[in-house]
């Protein structure tokens, strides 16, 4: 069921998932209302994220996403692609800003086949100019009891 934002209950539209050789990707647009909701939940009200007038006067020229809001898009794709998997670790960097209203593509790429029920992923969020806004690695513990298999 979709809410007023056009997303299903998990926040992602299943029709936007695309399996590719070696990875999975998902497209999403984060709007200012998402930045504002994340600020309310996280307590991070830095004006670069929530005040368009303030942000207009910065080197970015507009509000930018919280880095961890970008990671929630990554985490959502992980949960969709690997149901029941536990996130054991993540290592993230945010080399470029992601702006409100900007189309983003979330990528998951498998580093190597699972070993000892562990799966290493390279994670990436790119804007439509293919600038990397989030890059990193995640290690998952797969839940084999749920008949879960790593997807390419």
Summarize the structure.
By secondary structure, this protein is α+β, with helices and mostly antiparallel strands.
Number of domains: 1
CATH architecture: Roll
Q: Supply the helix-strand structural class.
A: alpha+beta
**Multimeric status of the protein:** single chain
**SS element count, helices:** 4
Query: How would you sum up the major sheet?
Result: 6 strands, antiparallel
In CATH, what is the homologous superfamily?
A: Hotdog Thioesterase
Helical proportion, percent range: 10-25%
Shape: elongated
For the biggest β-sheet, the strand order reads 1-2-4-5-6-3
Describe the 3D structure:
Helices cover 23% and strands 31% of the residues. The protein has 152 residues and is α+β, with helices and mostly antiparallel strands. It has a single domain, classed as Hotdog Thioesterase (Thiol Ester Dehydrase, Chain A, Roll), CATH 3.10.129.10. A 6-stranded antiparallel beta sheet has the order 1-2-4-5-6-3, with helices on one face. A hairpin with a 2-residue loop joins strand 1 and strand 2. The longest helix has 15 residues. The two termini are 27 Å apart.
């Amino acid at each position: 069921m979709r809410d007023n934002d056009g997303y299903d209950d998990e926040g992602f539209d299943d029709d936007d998932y695309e399996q590719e050789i070696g990875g999975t990707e998902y497209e999403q647009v984060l709007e200012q209302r998402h930045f504002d909701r994340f600020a309310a939940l996280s307590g991070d009200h830095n004006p670069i994220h929530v005040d368009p007038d303030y942000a207009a006067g910065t080197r970015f020229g507009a509000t930018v996403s919280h880095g961890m809001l970008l990671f929630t898009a990554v985490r959502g794709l992980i949960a969709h692609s690997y149901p029941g998997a536990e996130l054991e670790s993540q290592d993230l960097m945010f080399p470029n800003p992601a702006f409100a209203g900007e189309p983003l593509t979330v990528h998951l790429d498998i580093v190597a086949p699972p070993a000892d029920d562990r799966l290493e992923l390279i994670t990436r969020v790119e804007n439509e100019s293919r600038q990397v806004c989030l890059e990193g690695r995640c290690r998952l513990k797969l839940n084999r009891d749920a008949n879960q298999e790593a997807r390419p």
